[in-house]
Amino acid sequence: MNLFRVMEISGSALLAERLRAEVVTANLANAETTRTDSGGPYQRMHVVFGARPAIHGGFGMMLASLADMHAEDVRVVNVVADTTPPNRRFEPGHPDADAQGYVSYPSINPAEEMVNLMGAARAYEMNASAVTSTKNMIQSAITILS
Q1: CA–CA distance from 112 to each of 44, 45, 117 (Å)?
Q2: pTM beyond 0.70, yes or no
Q3: Between β-strands 102-105 and 72-81, what pairing exists: parallel, antiparallel or unpaired?
Q4: What is the DSSP letter of 56?
C-alpha cells in the first residue's frame, strides 16, 4: 500500500474521531440542560461514521496504487439527535417545571458518555501512532534510497 495513502486514511480518521470527542463532550456538558433555544431539554447527539471511497488522480496514480483501490477514508456521515425521551424529575420549584411539577432532563448517562469519550481518545491516539509509524517508514525508505 502507498504509504502516503496510509497517512491520508489515518488523517481522515483523526478528524472523524476529533468530531466524535467534541460531540461526546457537548453531551456531557449539557447533561443537566433543561431548556434550549428550541424550547425543550438538550438532546443527546450521536456521530455516524462512514467510508469515503479513495479518489484516484488519473491513470498514473491508479497504477501506482492498485492496492489502494479498496482503501477508503473515514468520514462523518451525520450527527444525529438521540430519540430517547427525556427523563422527568419531580421538582415543582424549578423554573422549567411543567404544570404537574415535573422537569424534563436530557437522557444522558454520564458513565456511558465517559466510555464513549475514552473510546474516541484511544482511537485518536491509535491513528496518531499510525501516522507517526508511517512517517518513520517513509523516512527510513528515503534514508535507504539515498
Answers
A1: 12, 13, 9
A2: yes
A3: unpaired
A4: P
Query: ∠ CA(43), CA(47), CA(49), 5° rounding?
Result: 160
Structure-block grid coordinates of residue 6: 496510509
Total of domains in the chain: 1
| CA-based nearest residue to 5, from 131, 125, 128, 136 | 131
Longest dimension (CA), the chain: 78
Report the C-alpha gap between 62 and 43 in whole angstroms. 44
CA 19 – CA 102 distance, rounded (Å): 34
The whole domain housing 86 covers 3-145
What are the 10-residue block averages of pLDDT along the chain, 146 residues in total? 83 95 97 92 95 62 55 89 95 94 96 96 95 93 89
Instruction: Give 94's DSSP letter.
Output: S
Selection from 130, 121, 140 nearest residue 5 by Cα: 130
**Residue closest to 114 by CA, chosen among 9, 27, 6, 1:** 27
* ∠ Cα 68 70 71 (to 5°): 60
